[in-house]
Structures are given as structure tokens and as C-alpha cells.
């Protein structure tokens, strides 16, 4: 067993504040008081933001409060700065940044908030968490039940914080298409703010010292892990829950060949010619890794496949068996371990590789740069390596993950006056100057950014940008967790799922046994999702969410 470097651990204690994906630790900070002095027109001209507009779409003689509910550490410092600046412009509107400690607490908070009067729920939320907590991962159901607002119409509204340009003008049309597809294809639950990717971080100094080349193939990755294991590194790959994205890329190399089965088709009740034209006649083209970037899945067709096939299929057996060949080099109980420990193991040199996301690249860069010169090391990233000889049922090329990151949605409320204020603050945040402020304040405060901004005009330091560029893959894998079964169990059954994954990773059971034992938990989750969505498993009929 490779010994932990205790002196380096002590050095890191003061410098590190690393957290798991979209989670963190720390105390809730106080939100600045409303009532800051109104910004004058001269000051507004200097700062690039407009003074309070007497033509505001809300009653400026009345006070109101906007609540932005976020998970600790991710952009929270920047968001608090935005709240201060916005309240200076609009002193009649108080902006409260409600910081929730971690993922689980956030899910619970959303379930509680929406079980009572929705008008009392937070106004701007992590939309993906609301959808997961309330609708079994269906954005369509979230729209049907009126939980979240369709933001597509806002794209053609003027953004007063960007020289009067339209809201859509700061976005690449391809990113808007991704956002539209992500939330059902006909409505848009979020506007893009950033992108995230996942890759293998590697310690270049250790690789050179041990004579190991950067893996070019999946088979090379296995060989490298075996070499490091032989040289005394107990866990060649430091990994946590984020490793599911590597599983997803393996799954993508199989499921993408049949993804035409899961698309909305002409004649389906939710068919929209304007946004789903790419679906017509679609077939996977293995020579073009981006051929499916504009297609739109159909939740009900996916549910039909899950109901008919369950999780214990031959394809899933191949996917999980292939993944387990790498997962055996992960730490014990990796699926339930806080990623902060995994990052620490990489930074201390205990693990030569780290399977992680771009959302921690900035923090790792800062951690290492703050160490004494003799403790620093060179590091870089490599993409998920493709197969030299793919297992039967999978294609050779693995596509990586590079998707929209910060998924902020607006909760639907009854008051038009209140909704006008919320949307105005959202526009303020998603304008170039304020997005830049969000990044700068976040980085300066040691909070985490998730990846490069997709808002035109935002720039990062050359050193950080170079690191983030390593997360951009040749093609982007689609999300197949719903079919592989990863975490697709009820919250009550999640400990059983973790036990099964850990047993598979340690070689205590094989992929066939794993899937057979997972099946009842997966089927229960799927049936609850079908019932909640009101699916009759006939996509040509319009269903009503329960």
C-alpha cells in the first residue's frame, strides 16, 4: 500500500475547499440587505448596467423579494455579488441568495417547497434537481404540472443589461438547441450558462517517473492501471460518483446505434415540426460522431423500452461488465464516497489518475499552484480512450461528456408583477458583464466554476482556459443512465444500489448477477415514473401527468 503523504496533507488543509459534484460544505452566508442607494445614470454608464428604469414591467412603488436557491459553493460568491449589484439598481426588489448545503438537502428542500403553496417556493432553482425530485426526471411533466416556466419566449425579449440586444444574442444557436432538446424539445426550462465535461486527470510527473505512457486506448488504460497497481499505488484511479459518466460513454457506444427507437416521430402527440425536424428518417451514422446532436428523444418511447426490456439485457450486461474492468481500480465503495477525498488523493500523489469533471479543474489548479514549489506537480487531462477491439455490441469509439452545466430554472408563480422581476434578474445574470462578474467573483473567492461559459464575451485566464480545453471531446455522448439503470432506483432503495455497484466493482458478483438483483428496484422506479407522467405507453395519444 502506498503511504499517505501526511506533510502534504497538512499543507492542503488550509488551501483546499474541494467538494463533490454540485455539492459542498460550509455555512450559509448572509445575504446583503436591500435598500442600497439607487445607482445614478452616471454610475450606470460607468459600470455598463442601466439605472433603474421607470418603465419597468413591475410596480416599482411596491417592495418584493426574489429568492435564488443554490447549492453551496458553486458560483455562490458570484451570485451574492450579483444580488448586491441588482439591488443597487432596483432597491424596491430584494434578492435573497438561499444557499443549501448539499445535493440531498437540496432535493429535500425542493420536495418540501413544492408540496405546499408553490407561490412560496424559491424563484430561481437548479431545474434538474426539481425535475429529479418531483417528476422522476421528466421535464415534460414539470411543464405539465406548472412547476417551471418555459423560457423560450424570453429569448426574443430585449435584455436591458446588454445594450438592448435580444436575450438570445449572447448564445450560440447550437447551445440553445441543446437546451431545448434537454427539456423536451418544445419548451425550454433553462438557458445555457456554462458547459461541463468529464475526463481523466493525470499526474504527469508520476507517469514519467513510473515509465507509463498516456493511454491511447481502453486496453492501454487497463494496462496502465495494472502497472501502477504493481508499483504500489493502491488506487490507480481516484474516483467518485462522477465516474458514472465513463459508464455512460461506454453505454453510448452501444445504445446510439438504436437511438432512432427513442425519438419523437411524426404522428406522436408531442411532435413539433419546428423543433424536431432532425428526427425524421434519422439513423445513426458511425462516420459522423455529431450526427445526433439535434435529435429529440421522446420520454414515453424511452419508458416503453424500459417497460418491455427492463434493465437485465445483454447490452447492459456488456456495458456493466466492460465498466467493471476499470472500476476495480477505483477506491473501495467509490460510488458513495465524497469526491473531496478522491481529489485529495490525486493532489497528494496517492493516485496517479483522477476521474473528474471540469467543475473541479479550477480548484485543483489553484490548490496545486498554492503548494510550495517542491510539492507542485505537472498535470493534464486525457479524454475517455476508445477501444482497440470493442466488445460485441459496442462501437470502438467512445464519445466524451461535454454538456450544459448550471441548469437554472424559474419557478412558475401566480403574480405577473413578481414574475417580471424574477425574469429581469435572470436576464441581468445572463448578460455578458454580469456573467463575467459571476466568474471573476467566484474564482477570487475560492468557489467553484463548472466549466467554460457559453455566454459570448466571458473570458477566463489563459492557464485555466488551457485546462478546460482538455474537456472538449470530439463528439458528445447522450444520456443513457435511464436505460443502464445507474441510480435509477427510488431514494429508499439507493443504499441497495450502492451495495450492488460496490460488489460488482470488487468482483464479488458479475454483471449478470448485478443486473438480475438490480431489476426489481429498477422496475419499481420505472413503474412509478410511468404512473407519475400519466403515460399510457402509446406515444400517439396525449397524456396528462398525475
TrEMBL record:
Species this chain originates from: Diplocloster agilis
Gene Ontology BP, a term: transmembrane transport
Gene3D superfamilies registered for this protein in UniProt: Periplasmic binding protein-like II
Residue ranges of the TM segments: none
PROSITE patterns: PROKAR_LIPOPROTEIN (PS51257), SBP_BACTERIAL_1 (PS01037)
InterPro entries: Bact_solute-bd_prot1, SBP, SBP_1_CS
Family: Belongs to the bacterial solute-binding protein 1 family.
Family annotation (Pfam families): SBP_bac_1
Protein name (Swiss-Prot/TrEMBL): Extracellular solute-binding protein
Sequence segments annotated as region (Disordered): 28-58
Residues in the signal sequence: 1-23
Domain of life according to the entry: Bacteria
UniProt KW keywords: Signal, Transport
UniProt feature, compositional bias: Polar residues: 43-52
Amino acid at each position: 500500500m502506498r503511504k499517505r503523504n501526511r506533510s502534504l496533507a497538512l499543507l492542503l488543509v488550509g488551501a483546499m475547499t474541494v467538494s463533490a459534484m454540485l455539492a459542498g460544505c460550509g455555512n450559509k452566508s448572509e445575504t446583503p440587505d436591500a435598500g442600497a442607494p439607487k445607482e445614478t445614470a452616471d454610475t450606470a454608464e460607468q459600470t455598463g448596467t442601466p439605472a433603474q428604469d421607470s418603465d419597468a414591467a413591475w410596480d416599482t412603488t411596491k417592495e418584493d423579494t426574489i429568492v435564488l436557491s443554490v447549492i453551496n459553493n458553486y458560483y455562490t460568491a458570484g451570485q451574492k455579488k450579483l444580488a448586491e449589484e441588482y439591488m443597487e439598481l432596483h432597491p424596491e426588489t430584494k434578492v435573497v441568495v438561499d444557499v443549501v448545503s448539499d445535493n440531498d438537502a437540496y432535493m429535500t428542500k425542493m420536495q418540501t417547497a413544492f408540496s405546499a403553496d408553490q407561490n412560496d417556493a424559491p424563484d430561481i432553482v437548479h431545474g434538474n434537481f426539481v425535475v429529479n425530485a418531483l417528476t422522476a426526471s421528466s421535464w415534460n411533466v414539470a411543464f405539465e404540472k406548472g412547476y417551471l416556466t418555459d423560457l423560450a419566449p424570453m429569448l426574443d425579449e430585449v435584455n436591458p443589461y446588454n445594450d438592448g440586444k435580444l436575450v438570445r444574442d449572447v448564445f450560440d444557436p447550437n447551445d440553445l438547441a441543446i437546451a431545448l432538446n434537454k427539456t423536451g424539445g418544445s419548451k425550454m426550462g433553462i438557458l445555457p450558462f456554462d458547459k461541463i465535461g468529464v475526463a481523466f486527470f493525470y499526474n504527469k510527473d508520476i507517469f514519467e517517473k513510473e515509465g507509463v505512457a498516456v493511454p491511447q486506448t481502453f486496453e492501454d488504460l487497463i494496462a496502465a492501471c495494472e502497472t501502477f497497481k504493481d508499483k504500489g499505488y493502491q488506487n490507480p484511479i481516484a474516483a467518485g460518483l462522477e465516474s458514472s459518466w465513463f459508464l455512460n460513454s461506454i453505454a453510448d457506444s452501444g445504445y446510439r446505434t438504436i437511438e432512432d427507437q427513442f425519438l419523437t416521430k411524426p404522428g406522436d402527440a408531442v411532435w413539433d415540426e419546428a423543433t424536431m425536424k432532425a428526427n425524421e428518417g434519422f439513423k445513426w451514422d458511425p462516420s459522423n460522431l455529431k450526427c445526433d446532436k439535434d435529435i429529440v428523444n421522446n420520454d414515453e418511447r424511452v419508458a416503453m423500452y424500459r417497460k418491455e426490456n427492463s434493465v437485465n439485457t445483454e447490452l447492459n450486461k456488456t456495458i456493466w461488465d466492460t465498466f467493471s474492468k476499470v472500476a476495480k481500480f477505483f477506491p473501495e465503495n467509490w460510488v458513495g464516497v465524497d469526491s473531496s477525498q478522491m481529489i485529495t488523493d490525486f493532489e497528494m500523489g496517492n493516485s496517479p489518475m483522477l476521474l473528474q469533471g471540469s467543475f473541479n479543474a479550477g480548484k485543483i489548479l489553484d490548490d496545486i499552484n498554492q503548494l510550495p514549489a517542491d510539492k507542485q506537480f505537472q498535470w493534464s487531462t486525457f479524454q475517455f480512450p476508445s477501444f482497440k477491439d470493442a466488445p460485441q455490441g459496442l462501437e470502438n469509439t467512445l464519445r466524451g461528456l461535454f454538456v450544459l452545466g448550471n441548469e437554472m430554472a424559474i419557478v412558475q408563480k401566480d403574480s405577473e408583477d413578481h414574475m417580471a422581476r424574477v425574469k429581469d434578474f435572470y436576464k441581468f445574470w445572463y448578460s455578458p458583464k454580469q456573467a463575467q462578474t459571476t466568474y471573476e467573483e467566484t474564482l477570487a473567492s475560492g468557489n467553484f466554476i463548472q466549466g467554460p461559459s457559453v455566454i459570448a464575451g466571458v473570458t477566463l485566464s489563459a492557464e485555466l482556459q488551457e485546462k478546460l480545453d482538455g474537456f472538449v471531446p470530439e463528439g458528445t455522448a447522450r444520456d443513457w443512465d435511464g436505460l443502464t439503470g445507474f441510480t435509477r432506483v427510488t431514494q429508499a432503495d439507493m443504499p441497495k444500489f450502492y451495495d450492488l455497484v460496490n460488489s460488482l466493482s470488487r468482483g464479488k458478483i458479475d454483471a449478470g448477477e448485478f443486473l438480475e438483483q438490480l431489476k426489481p428496484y429498477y422496475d419499481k422506479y420505472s413503474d412509478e415514473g410511468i404512473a407519475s407522467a400519466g403515460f399510457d405507453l402509446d406515444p400517439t395519444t396525449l397524456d396528462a401527468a398525475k
